[in-house]
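User: Before I run my own analysis I want an independent prediction to cross-check against. Here's the chain; please return only the structure tokens and, at the end, one sentence I can use as a sanity check.
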Amino acid sequence: MARDHVRSAERADGAAPAGAPTETPFLELLARGAPVDAYEQPVLLARAEGCPDATVVALEHAKLLALRVRAELEGRRRREAELSALFETAHDLAGLRDLDSVLRAIVQRARSLLGTDVAYLSLNDPTRGDTYMRVTEGSVAARFQQLRLGMGEGLGGLVAQTARPYVTDDYFKDDRFQHTHAIDAGVRDEGLVAILGVPLMLGHHVIGVLFAADRRARVFEREQIALLGSFAALAAAAIDTANLLTETRSALAGLERANEIIRDRSGVIERASDVHDRLTELVLRGGGVHDVAAAVSQVLDGTVEFTEAADTPPGPLETSRAEGHAVRHKDDWIAAVAAGGELLGALVLRGHPGLDPVDQLTLERAAMVTSLLLLARRSAADAEQRVRGELLDDLLDARDRDPRLLRERAARLHADLDATHVVLAARLDGPAADAEQEADARRRLWSAASHLAATRHGLAAARDGGTVLLLPLRTGDTATALARRIARHLGTAVHEAVTVGASAPVRDLAARPDAVAAAYKEGRRCLEALRLLGRAGDGAAAQDFGFLGLLLAGDRDIAGFVDRTIGQVVTYDERRGTDLVRTLDAYFTCGMSPARTKDELHVHVNTVAQRLERVGRLLGDDWQSPARALEIQLALRLHRLSAAEQR
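Assistant: Structure tokens:
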């Protein structure tokens, strides 16, 4: 009964039936992957059954063979898993996109295959000369994750320094490497005991260390060290690949930037070549400054204008002339057009604040071409200027009184003697060091005035140590405003103060050529008055000098003086039927006394006060000042005389 029970037990445990070969139970155990302890059962049962010694010995031998086969199978399975993990890691490396993800996968697989509590990877820092934690897996201590190891410090520092694997089964009892407080504290926080470290190698250089560690004592086998070394090689390859990719991307980005710069430079050079060709063509076919501005506008894709010096902001214009470069002014660029020391104008690029240096150079070259064109035309215009001067001299001296001939001569110079004109007398007011410098300054003044007259369809001539201009008066303009503009323009052109006196507007010059001479005398009187009043560098007409203008004006414009002085009061009386003019006259006759004035007019003193208040509103608060009072009294007398003549 007992033997049947043993056999039943053998069969229940996988043992072979009676008469079966001794290897059979062990093959069945191998087939179902039984644990190592199960391989003792067939031998124990045989002994319990009292089988012959030969049978027991055969079973012992079969057991040993089976365990060896089992160990071989386990090793192969483990190597297969390791190779699979290495293959997967290599596959990840082949499709590398994110270095951190690949390194994290390497550390995770190393920890899993070696069965350790923690795995981590450190990289060397060439700048600081140490190694630092890059990736950790299974770590729980923050201080450990932030460790930095100096070369030769700790197990990792020793691996990084010697480029050889190191392993310790008890870190704190191992004195082969240098212990430091910071490293030991981090390892203690993490609770690590057994640590294996292998170097990350690129060629002969160590770039970091790959670790596997346990929180208990452990002996790492040779195969495990080799496996971790294989992962370290993959990690080093991943880092090298990532670095190469980074360098490649950086190089590609640099090449792309360089390509963009080359394309941009190429476009700029093409534009510069284009504008050079256009300007050359313009010069050859006799184009003008506005043709140059139009050509540059097309090339620079903006609006370029030629402006007179007087119409250009003086600060940027002077800076451009002094430096020889285009100057930015708000959203515009200004390039001075100068010849020698004379400013002829400027090329202004409108609304183009961001200007490429080559485009800036294009604008500067266009300004230079413009100045050359103006100089070339000046040589050709000298004869025309002399003709203009001769015509103006004839008008001033009244030699040729034939209106038809005067009109024909003027028409050839693009001047219209039937239009309303103003005669302006201009003179330099800056001190001259010597006679030569004074003569040079006068020549520059005459040149600038002649250029101005030619561009404005007028005439100019040198006379009496200065210059005289005959310029058409535009609609809505005044002699005073024109005189002031001409003073500024000529002063800017010659870099000295220029004073300008203007005549009243004159008409029908062809029919009345003597009117030009009279107007010139009036302009000279205004010029002298400005200089005597200390207003050098200014411009004015006779009407700007109050009652003195009656003495300066050639035609004695009495009505104009009266109108400018008390015209508002006269008009008020005419419209309202009031008696302000008579009250004003009585007020001055009575010595500016309201009490005596009310007796003179036979009205209440309040009535006088109200009328004078109304006069103040019409004439301004300063109407009783000595200068104004004198002009008002003179105007009142002239008004009375004029009214008497009309009766």
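Sanity check: The CA atoms of residues 586 and 592 lie 8 Å apart.
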